[in-house]
TrEMBL record:
InterPro entries: ClpP/crotonase-like_dom_sf, ClpP/TepA. SUPFAM superfamilies: ClpP/crotonase (SSF52096). This is ATP-dependent Clp protease proteolytic subunit. GO terms for molecular function: peptidase activity. Pfam families: CLP_protease. Keywords: Hydrolase, Protease. Gene3D superfamilies: 2-enoyl-CoA Hydratase, Chain A, domain 1 (3.90.226.10). It comes from the Bacteria. GO terms for biological process: proteolysis.
Amino acid sequence: MTDTSPASNARNYPLLAAPHIHLHGPVDDAMYDNFKSQLVAAPTEGPLVVSITTLGGDPEVARAMGDNIRLLREYTGRETLFLGKVAVYSAGATFMSAFPVDSRFLTRNSRIMIHERQMQSTIELNGPLNTLSYTLKAKLHEIEDSINIQEEGFRAIVEGSKVSLEELKKKAPSNWYIEAEEARDLGLVLDII
């Protein structure tokens, strides 16, 4: 029987002990700048380990950081490993989706939170009547495109896991909190350290 105690499990993944890139706080432009600086300073060979702790933030920044990871993997063939610590909420889960499920890890007692994208907006109708429908159509297009982007992200989060897209879409509207053990059992992450 394999010893799966947290101490021995951590020993199974020695690379995760010293991430090359440490991210914490809101996912925003400052985090992206910090991410790019650490990426440039990271070793250029061998697996790249990225850790994050976040309560969320800008999903487009998360997608941009994720694209950096994807492009690095596709252009160099380099292995990239994700380590979520304590909280991987909202935009943090979006960033996590850039890593294959077999390259995702969480620390003990961590949680992932996935929810639908949020929008807060006021539409002011002001001007000639013939132009007002364009304002409404533009907002509708923005909503529709945001839903498409959300679905792309949801597909990336569950790809290779035991969670179906339909299940995620059902749970996301009420903020789906997933404890580390459940995330591992669902195949959303490879393991817990």
